[in-house]
Amino acid sequence: MMVSGRSGRLAVALGRALSVAAMVWSTASALAADLKGPVDVPARRALVGRPLGPVSCAAVPAPVRDIAAEPFYSDRAGSVVDPARYAARERIVKPLEDYLRGVVKMTDRWIESNPPRPETARCALDWLDGWARADAMLGQVTPQGGYERKWTLGGLALAYLNIREAPGLDAAAKARVEAWFARLAAEVRRYYDRPPGRGVTDKLNNHRYWAALAVAASAVATGDRAGLDWAIEAYRVGIGQVDADGMLPLELARAGKALHYHAFSVTPLVMVAEIGAANGIDLYGERGGALGRLVANVVGGLSDPSPFERRTDTKQGFVGSLSGWHVAWAEIWYARRRDAAVVPLLRTYRPLRNNWLGGNMSLGFGVPELPRP
Fold first, then answer.
1. Within 10 A of 39 (CB to CB), how many other CB atoms are there?
2. Which H/E stretch holds residue 85?
3. If you write DSSP's letter for every residue of 50-63 in order, what string do you get?
């Protein structure tokens, strides 16, 4: 049947618009696929996969739009935890932590399943899409809430990269999730692109490195090469600060938490370097291997904190006790460098999990056979 007049022109215009939209989505998908995540899922499944038992998908938790968390340190150096403030922060961020844990549980199971169980990936995507539809984490956000948002975004984007090639995923849901990541990453960048105020260090210290990770993971998920470039420059802010002793002056300023915050800083820096490596960019070798010097000092400090105590004139401690969460980056480092210095950490703390890194690092990167002591 022929269609003429205004209706015909409208139909033609609509057809063209749909064609353009399809081309845009196809191009965006191709660009996203061109940037690679840090975990080679098929290779890991072949190496460490196992048959899974019954798999169920819980209901998507209520989305969180506002994040009203507040700082929990009681001193200017940021080294003394106020128990009441810390408990208040924990109550506020628990829904974010529970949500991220649920997503990561399913994406880890997708990697681990052999034979593959696509329903685990579909469940994770359902959870991500539920929050994407609600514009989660895009409401009223305090400065501390902004920190919580970028940590959560990094973990979610890394987890998504592990499932995005799974068969049978809904293309529209993937598009919504990727658009959500792009909006969240834009909020992260907006904060760190503003000049720091007088005496403010969070745009130069470990917070910037975590911002680099959140933006890098989101950029790979969305095919945003400009975003990845931004993240690499943010990474270089950290690497450029490693001094002759292999330490970070802004983290030494944390007094009794200097060692803690050096380990905290290494965590996103190693993952960003690994994202770079997955995409043919050598960030491990930047500044004459400054990341290696930093890692060596952190590993040494975990067994003998005296170098940090001399530099700070303060006894060192951690927020909570040292755990696999603090050293999850060691799996990536050993897989890339075969550095025997981190082997004791792997033996002690496996499986090493950190949801802000996307989940179980032993599953995603762990070398099964470690050298004998």
1. 23
2. helix 83-112
3. B-------PPPPPP
How is 265-302 classified by DSSP, letter by letter? Answer: HHHHHHHHHHHHHHTT---TTHHHHHHHHHHHHHHHHH
- The predicted model scores a pTM of 0.90
Check if the beta carbon of residue 270 is closer than 8 Å to that of residue 332.
yes
| Contact yes or no for 182/224 (Cβ under 8 A) | yes
Chain-wide mean pLDDT for the chain? 91
Reported as a single tens digit per residue, the pLDDT across 30-77 is 445 599 999 999 999 999 999 999 999 999 999 999 999 999 999 989
Q: Which residue type does 302 have? A: L
- What does the pLDDT average to over 178-182? 98
Containing H/E element for 178? helix 171-193
Indicate if the pLDDT at residue 7 is higher than 70.
no
CATH pick for 42-365 out of 3.40.630.10, 2.60.40.10, 1.25.40.10, 1.50.10.100: 1.50.10.100
Domain boundaries along the sequence of the chain: 42-365
Q: Is the separation of the CB atoms in 190 and 245 below 8 Å?
A: no
